[in-house]
Recover the amino acids of this structure.
């Protein structure tokens, strides 16, 4: 297999290790049975900061206003969406409800290294950016995530963030008339 093809990527990020905390950059994601498990129709009304490898076991709805729904709070950890969705409170058709709401990101990685957001999964209906990589973050991987019907960018990597990888993601119906930044 060639390094750049999808099958190689899946193997590279496969679930081989069982140690959630001992993983070097680009090693396989662990199964994380002891980590945080999000789901069973879980509702978040305040920012959930994850500090260990975490995974979805069901869909998550988010009603956090003006702040991220999920924030990475440590370097070297992963969030596996496992085919589930994170859905916020924006309009299901336009993604905005009249305009963007600053800071209301789906998943935020700020000032960290070696974080992984792994799909498949959907992040939708946020009134700011869905996935934000910012403030000096480096070596962050976002793979196989669908970003849909959001008010601003699907995935944004801001100034100061470097050496990050975005692989196999899909962005649909993101952005708005006053902020047409859209996709990735």
């Amino acid at each position: 297999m060639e390094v750049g093809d999808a099958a190689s990527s899946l193997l590279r990020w496969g679930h081989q290790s069982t140690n959630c905390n001992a993983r070097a950059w680009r090693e396989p994601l662990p199964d994380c049975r002891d980590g945080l498990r999000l789901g069973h129709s879980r509702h978040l009304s305040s920012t959930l900061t994850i500090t260990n490898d975490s995974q979805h076991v069901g869909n998550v709805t988010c009603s956090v206003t003006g702040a991220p729904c999920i924030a990475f709070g440590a370097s070297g950890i992963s969030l596996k969406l496992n085919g589930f969705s994170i859905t916020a409170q924006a309009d299901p058709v336009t993604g905005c409800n009249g305009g963007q709401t600053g800071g209301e990101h789906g998943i935020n990685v700020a000032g960290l290294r070696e974080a992984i957001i792994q799909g498949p999964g959907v992040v939708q209906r946020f009134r700011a950016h869905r996935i934000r990589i910012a403030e000096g973050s480096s070596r962050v991987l976002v793979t196989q995530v669908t970003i849909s019907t959001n008010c601003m960018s699907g995935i944004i990597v801001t100034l100061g963030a470097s050496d990050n990888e975005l692989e196999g993601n899909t962005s649909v119906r993101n952005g708005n008339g006053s902020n047409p930044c859209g996709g990735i």
